[in-house]
Amino acid sequence: MTKVLIDCDPGHDDATAILYAARHLDLIGITTVYGNQSVEKTTRNALSLAALLRLDVPVAQGCEQPLIRAFRHGGDVHGKTGIDGAELPEPVQSVVDAHAVDFIIESARQHRDELVLCPIGPFTNVAVALRKEPRLAKWLRGISCMGGTTQVGNTTPVAEFNIWSDPEAADIVFRSGAPMWMVGLNVTRQVGITSDDIERLDAGGEVAQTYAGLFDFFRQRLSEIHGISTASLHDPCALVPFIVPDFITYAECPVEIELSNGLTRGMTVCDFRSLTSAKLENIRAKTASNCQVAVSVNSRALVEHIMDAILEWPSTESANDYVRSDSLS
Ligand code: BDR
Ligand code: CA
Q1: How far, CA to CA in Å, does 43 sit from each of 12, 39, 327?
Q2: Most buried by CB count within 10 Å: which residue of 19, 21, 42, 329?
Q3: Is 120 in the pocket of ligand 1 (CB under 6 A)?
């Protein structure tokens, strides 16, 4: 079964990724980062989600700021707590006594060649870990992220929030040499929870009802801000290659992060050109491919698969028999 470590900023869709990973994969840890709210709040949310789902998974707190620039968190979209819309339980566990950066390095060392790292918030923790331990990229089975876009952005016309929050960190990660999967907005915006889905969840057990409240808030915010009618399940899409690989298709290509301070800062420049000529005097040559970029998705099938994971989550007894029971990999 695939071992996964989620680096996140919960966050409504992060909360869904945690549940989906725990259901189908061997979730060995959660690290937190600023992003949808301050790192104190995203950490508390991760701990409360672990309590809600009765998960026994270590949580390590990480960076509170990007590498270089001052940061404005994403409270506009995810609310004051970072996960408004439902009352989450008080945490029952504390964070582990290690910084997220060290937790990432130690986990990769322990599970060499097996661990998939899933950054689904700003990339700062992962970049610092790669700089602190240069062997990290080789120890990982891969990095599968939610970030970027091949089309329109959400934070600027061309940049997606997780990459835009810390482009220098994203640049370090994309240049790391680790096998990479990038699932961006071009795909994740198609994976949306509808108001009918929310009604179905609301008629379910305690966990499903909690997610219904979260999605209802998130859907309204996305509708007010971006004019879209569904709650986008961005973050769980990063797990798809290891759970239901056929649901998303990828194109292998070079991806570079725009670091200039102008209009295009944080853009994920995906080189989909099929250059054949050796004569490139006036054409910029392609660099080597570094990423599998998501290009299409079987959206309804994926939403239903995630819905099933939420609806079937046991509400009272221990979740241990339910999680990790039918993974494909
Ligand atoms: C990403 O930004 C956050 O709002 C979400 O949690 C997701 O990781 C989408 O751009
Ligand atoms: Ca996120």
Answers
A1: 13, 6, 27
A2: 21
A3: yes
> Does the CB atom of residue 235 touch ligand 1 within 6 A?
yes
Domain around 239: 3-327
CATH code: domain of residue 201: 3.90.245.10
Q: Choosing from 78, 111, 234, 305, which is the catalytic residue?
A: 234
Over residues 101-135, the pLDDT tens digits come to 999 999 999 999 999 999 999 999 999 999 999 99
Q: Given this model, what pLDDT does residue 328 score?
A: 38
For ligand 1, atom 4: residue with the closest CA: 36
327: confidence class by pLDDT, cuts 50, 70, 90: very low
- Number of domains within the chain: 1
Whole-model pTM?
0.95
- Does residue 184 line the site of ligand 1, with CB under 6 A? no
